[in-house]
Amino acid sequence: xxxxxxxxxxxxxxxxxxxxxxxxxxxxxxxxxxxxIPGIALLTLGVNPLTGALGAFNIFLYTCCYTPLKRMSIANxxxxxxxxxxxxxxxWTAATGSLDAGALLLGGILYSWQFPHFNALSWGxxxxxxxxxxxxxxxxxxxxxxxxxLRHCLALIGxxxxxxxxxxxxxxxxIISLPINLYISYLGFRFYRDADRSSxxxxxxxxxxxxxxxxxxxxxxxxxxxxKEDKGDLPGGGHETAMEIRLP
Length: 248
Fold this sequence. Notes:
Elements lengths: L3 H4 L9 H4 L4 H23 L1 H21 L6 H21 L4 H23 L2 H7 L4 H4 L1 H24 L6 H23 L2 H24 L4 H6 L8 H8 L2
Subcellular location: Membrane
InterPro entries: Protohaem_IX_farnesylTrfase, UbiA_prenyltransferase, UbiA_sf
Main location: membrane
């Protein structure tokens, strides 16, 4: 709705339904509201208020902060990364009802992953973003674009190592995930060094399988409830809580 005039100048967005006039702006806004408002209500009443609040905050952050920032400052990428990091945090709060270390770790992984993913993607779309008037790192700060992508590839290694320290996974997780984290870091270094479309495409396509693979390994190496119970780490620390968790 906000970006129709700018999307019409970009090859990747000029065929979107709003740009082509296939649907009206009023219909688009009504559809968004009919999804967003009941969605937040369902999360709040059917799951818990914390998850509903995070959902509402994310809609606000995307529409009112990230979207206008795209035409004002390269800070939009960092704000957009927060938007992408919140959904897994919502999954954690939906399951546990709390915003604890596990939620922040999942959010941190998604946050860092988005920089090699998007910066590599935007590198091949620099001309398009320039025509649309969007302030992307790849357009205005190409060197920073590559450096940030590499830094966050390396950050994924650190975040994977933090997981067992926080007692979320076993120590097998950072070990098993190290090869794929090293591989995306290698491609991030190639992108930083070569600064061409070939290296950016390889990094982008690697990011598509890297994230699901990393999360799958994380899932298989997660600490079970019974392991934490044996250590007395369950919330509340009581025998009654452990019994409740075991019951269907």
